[in-house]
Design a protein that fits this description.
With 64 residues, the chain is mostly helical. The protein has a domain of 43 residues. Helix content is 89%, strand content 0%. The longest helix is centred in the C-terminal third of the chain and has 40 residues.
Amino acid sequence: MSSVAEYIKESYIELTEKVTWPTWRELQSSAVLVLIAAIIIALLIFGMDSVINYILRWFYSSLA
């Protein structure tokens, strides 16, 4: 049981003294970057889906 307590103690020391946490400004800019990238990727996928949908509708309507 002492090894679990030692692990928790060492983990706490690691998180409080050795980890470099981002500042609030860095965190905000990273979140904005991720949001913009997600929107761009979603728009690309939407565009590809629309083009494929148009091509398939054209193809199947030409068969009828």
